[in-house]
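For the sake of transparency, this paper describes our internal protein records without simplification. An entry from our holdings is shown next, in its original layout:
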Amino acid sequence: LLLWHGRAPAPAAATLADRVFETTLANGLKVLILEEPKAPVVSIQVWYKVGSRNEVMGRTGLAHMLEHMMFKGTPTIGPKQFDLLVTRNGGQDNAVTSTDYTAYYEDFAADRVELGLRLEADRMAHLLIDEKEFIPERQVVIEERRLRIEDQPAAILGQTMRAVAFQANPYRNPAIGWPSDMLAWTREDLVQFYRTYYVPNNAILVVVGAIEKDDVLRKVQALFEPIPRRPDPPKVVTQEPPQLGERRIFVRKEAELPIYFAVHHVPNLTDPDSFALQILAYVLGGGESARFYQKAVYEKQLASYAGADYNPVHIDPYLFGFSAWPLPGKTVDEIEEVLYAEVDRLAREPISDRELQKAKNQIESEFVFAQDSVHAMAELLGRYEAVANWKLLDGFLEGVRRVAAADVQRVARQYLTQQNRTVAILVPTKAGSASVGPGK
């Protein structure tokens, strides 16, 4: 990998821009088709440009709840029949809701491409949101929140941290919704949300696999063009104001050990700094050989884990995060001191050429391997188009390769500052114990 990924791509190699067919139907539906004959399969994915970022206070979680209801049937496909139909045809299906998008997919043998297209066109135009399906499914989602958030100390800490880190941007709200909002959802809320956001002019259809482009395009036109265009959904105009000082919070919850999180506001993938920030994340926290793990886990033996992460694929600027799990008898103060000592060292001294190249190799290899399957390639195209533009994928490797050690040092100095950080600390309590003071 060190040698292969360090080479420039062969001049004759086709870029994604050369291989992906893009068109927009008369009703506004964006269509991306990629002929990929490496395996006799196809992935059909529909990405709606709506997530928790588009929700309003008092009705958070609707995007995720609607994702559940999208499997509850249409006039032609009854409740619980969608998954059964996919399975009987040898396929797999699922969906995901995030801050910025909601995506659905079916993976089939390539000769079942029309079935996947029919299923998605049908529920884009004719979803039934029945009261008798809505009420029990709402309870399913409430239980999902309990299992995934309320019963997980790290999840509660992360939810609280984001709510403090973002003051204006809707990224402050959990994608699954706040508990009181979930109890207040009505069928009418979902119907309005569906009619507003599940329109062809707010969606991207991605088809990747062992297919023939012209044949798939004819099927897409026949199935999706009759769906009428509707008014464009309202845009989110709120921008997060600059952070004017450190925010520090403590969350008391029953747990065995404390947890340390810290986040810093940073740009998204449309900013040139995103490449240097990705390398910075790998240098500080990209695995057991990274600086945080080496210092906090191996050398100082303060933590069972210490890492850093940065995901630039968001519509708005997002967060660069640190996380650490102290060992018994160790404190978050000790760990924080070690982590930020490493940040200060990096800000003073540029990383070595070897460290820089190692981080580039890790990022490039993950990017290349992420395109190895038909499903993953479709997912990459859909995610980038949903938040920005899929063509940014073509410039990714070159952007990473251009980063110099001085760029990594500069972004560390610029963004990983005390004024720009929000710290969240889990203070473990025993069952039934009382909370007394903040403590550490």
